[in-house]
Amino acid sequence: MIGAYRFSDDFIKTVTSILCVSMVGMIGGGYLLGYLSDNFEGETRNILSILGLSVVITGITLPLLIAGILGGEAIMRGAGALGFWTAGWIAEMPIWIQGPELGSPRAYVRGPGDKRFRHSPNA
To answer: I want to staple 82 with a disulfide (CB 3.0 to 4.6 A). Which of 13, 23, 86, 101 is the partner?
Structure first.
């Protein structure tokens, strides 16, 4: 079906939950390493500080990278390298930006007013 996602809603919700929990866990773990580094001196302190920062940066970037790849794959096969937005644009999916609050207004990049818009039953 044109415009439908390739993954089930359950799969998307499960992966989203895993990525969010891993993001929070890694950021918390990196912060904890940085906090613990204050209890040491010299080289140990530097290593723990750098390790903590690395874990925080990885905790932010890796889940976002995985989400972009899986989002692209959800829209069309082989599009994971393109990322979610590019694959969505090519597949002519509805694209909008919306605040996190329930019912907040959407700013459409491509949407119902666009003649190329293809309706998705999951949108």
So the answer is: 86
Degrees to nearest 5, angle at CA 120 with 8 and 85: 80
pTM greater than 0.85: no
Digit-coded pLDDT (tens) for 86-119: 777 777 777 777 777 777 777 766 655 555 444 4
**How far apart are alpha carbons 81 and 1 in whole angstroms?**
22
CA–CA separation, 30 vs 41, rounded Å?
18
Question: How many angstroms separate the CA atoms of 115 and 43, rounded?
Answer: 61
Instruction: Classify 95 as helix, strand or coil.
Output: strand
Residue at 45: amino acid letter:
R
Q: Any alpha helices (H) in 1-123, and if so which ranges?
A: 9-37, 42-75, 84-90
Domain boundaries, the chain: 9-110
